[in-house]
Design goal:
The protein has a single domain, classed as Nucleoside Triphosphate Pyrophosphohydrolase. It is built from 2 helices and 8 strands, in the order E-E-E-H-E-E-E-H-E-E. The longest helix has 13 residues. The chain is about 15% helix and about 45% strand. Strands 1, 2, 3, 4, 5, 6, 7 and 8 form an 8-stranded mixed beta sheet that branches. By secondary structure, it is mostly beta strands.
Length: about 170
């Protein structure tokens, strides 16, 4: 079974809108869907998802680390894809400076979406479930949550738990 790791970011502006990338309709991966900024980690980044996230943000938006505030790991999501690939997604949340200019990439179109409206957009089930949790629980804390994607009565669902250290 193959293992794939990804690093993505939900970037907020001062209006509490989130920057999403709408993939091109001819994209091989998630065509036409709106996705958070990010992507697959390179082999040299396996132990450094933050650096992979910064690289992906730069490639997809033109933003650099200097344009970002409080980019913090908030979620780690696990899922299995068609019993052939285990995916681990490291999800960062942060803010974009008001004076930051965006540069479109060839991967799709960037747009700001009200955080409350994301669950009504053409997004992945993982994005929808994560934003629901963030709005209900995550935005009022700095904890890191780990989620496992599954099907609940035929609908996508994520079981969440706090990432904690345990000492005997």
């Amino acid at each position: 079974m193959k293992l794939r790791q990804m690093a993505v970011a939900f970037l907020f502006n001062d209006k509490q809108e989130v920057l999403l990338l709408q993939k091109k309709s001819n994209s091989a991966f998630l065509s036409g869907r709106k996705v958070p900024i990010g992507g697959h980690m390179e082999e040299a980044e396996i132990n450094a998802p933050y650096h992979a996230c910064i690289r992906e943000i730069g490639e997809e938006t033109g933003l650099t680390a200097e344009h970002l505030n409080n980019l913090t790991l908030r979620y780690i999501v696990h899922r299995i894809r068609k019993n052939s690939e285990i995916r681990i997604q490291y999800v960062y949340f942060g803010h974009v400076s008001a004076d930051s200019g965006l540069i479109e990439s060839d991967e799709g179109k960037l747009s700001w979406v009200d955080q409350q409206e994301i669950i009504h957009q053409e997004v992945t089930a993982t994005t929808k479930e994560m934003m629901k949790h963030y709005i209900e629980t995550g935005r009022s804390t700095n904890k890191i949550y780990v989620g496992t994607m599954k099907s609940l009565r035929g609908e996508p669902d994520i079981t969440w738990g706090e990432l904690e250290d345990w000492e005997a």
